Amino acid sequence: MRLWHNIILEDPWFLLLLLLLPFFIYWRYFRKKGALSTIKMNNLGSLKSAGWLARIRHFLFFLQLAAFTLLTLAMTRPQKALQDETINSEGIDIVIAMDVSGSMLARDFNPDRLEASKFLGKQFIDKRPFDRIGLVVFAAESFTQCPITSDHEVLKKLFTDVRNGYLEDGTAIGMGLATSVSRLKESKAASKVVVLMTDGVNNSGFIDPSTAAETAKQFGIKVYTIGVGTEGTAPYPVKNFFGSSLRNIKVEIDEELLKDIADQTGGKYFRAKDNKGLQQIYNEIDRLEKTEIEVTRIKRYSEMFHNLAIWALICGITYLLLNFTVMRRIG
Q: Running DSSP on this structure, what letter comes out for residue 37?
């Protein structure tokens, strides 16, 4: 018998015993009505004492009813349903390839392109708890910042550590993509994806981006490319004698190359012109690459009669203690 969405009674037939409660009350207050004893008292103090004892008698009757009710409920064996979930996911292996060249410090994003990409990249990771994700960074060369992993806390920490300057400056799109492919080519995942973002034109590295795209296609790796940067010019910090100042630089993104890479591999090209645009792109990729999740629910039951039985025992013991001490008969 189900009481609430997660409480059931294993033996609900014991509830029929509660039908006896009205008979107990009838016997107490109506059957014995008028059956009052005559007690001789030698002073008014005894009368006050008798009134106090009468109130205690009502409390004793309440304890009897409470003990009977609690014991009856305990015999129904109430149980709380505890639900376990076993999640079997057909996950996706993803590598985020991030440009960390000097131009990623441009301020057309808040606070700049690199920091915005890192922040929104970590949000993207949080939305995909069942996928293995890795991180590759590239400038004039490429480097695996984090191999594909299911430990997203470690991955996000390594995301935070990404900085401009520890790789030679330049934009090696082919190298970044090739390194990402090398991290995924041995993967047994149902789906393999590279999210490649850059704000420039391929001008470094010894691997042609088209060759890297062809390799990705051969291994069944889908590449989503993102051009990061506004239209026209963008403010860029330049150091000078007084510290630093902002100077507008021309935004140059090889959109044709990025579109070709996406088309070859079955992915899609996006252009992010500000933080909001980049967030929308991450959201769309999240929708396009859905992880298949199978959830198996296993129910366990926790017995609850123990507490009811303990309270019934407490009421019974309290009744006996009061009845044979405070309320003992005066002969």
A: P
Can you identify the CATH homologous superfamily of domain 92-290?
von Willebrand factor, type A domain (3.40.50.410)
Distances (CA, A) of 58 to 19, 48, 61, 71, 264: 21, 16, 5, 20, 87
**pTM > 0.85:** no
Residue 139's CB is within 10 A of a number of other CB atoms, namely 26
Specify which of 7-21, 155-169, 300-314 reaches the highest per-range mean pLDDT: 155-169
- The interaxial angle of helices 113-126 and 152-160, nearest 10 deg, is 170
Give all strands of the β-sheet with 2-4 in edge-to-edge order: 2-4, 7-9, 78-90, 292-303
Three-state DSSP state, 243: strand
**b/e per residue, 17-49, with b = 16+ CB within 10 A?**
eeeeeeeeeeeeeeeeeeeeeeeeeeeeeeeee
pLDDT tens digits for 198-214?
999 999 999 999 999 99
The string of pLDDT tens digits covering residues 31-66 is 655 554 555 555 545 445 555 566 677 778 888 888
pLDDT higher than 60, residue 261: yes
To 10 degrees, what angle do helices 305-323 and 44-75 make?
Answer: 160
Domain with CATH 3.40.50.410 in the chain: 92-290
How far is 45 from 41, CA to CA, in rounded Å? 9
Phi, psi angle pair for 199, to nearest 5°: -120, 15
